[in-house]
Amino acid sequence: MIHGPSRNQNHIVTEGWSNPDSQARYVHGWLGEPKSAEQYRTGHGCLGCSSFAAFNADWGLCCNQDSRHFTETVFEHFTCPWFSDRDLQEDEDADAASGDRLPESA
Fold it and tell me: Would you say residue 55 lies in a domain?
């Protein structure tokens, strides 16, 4: 039997930033991080990342083990140098190879 307080310090945050350093990066436009700033400007945010697990319409969990934001709650418009749309691209490539395409609108 374990005595004393629990050692688990995991506090799941679903309605805001879990790391104030990440929030500061977003608020200040990724100062000193030109790749992240460019990704943000071109719409490559967490919502489009294959490692983003959404909690709700605005917030989600970074699941990219290579990212410094791994296991952080981040905003859907946040981004980082580890952004990956790999799964999305693989799905598009598979659809193209199989001939599965959405019909073009008239």
Answer: yes
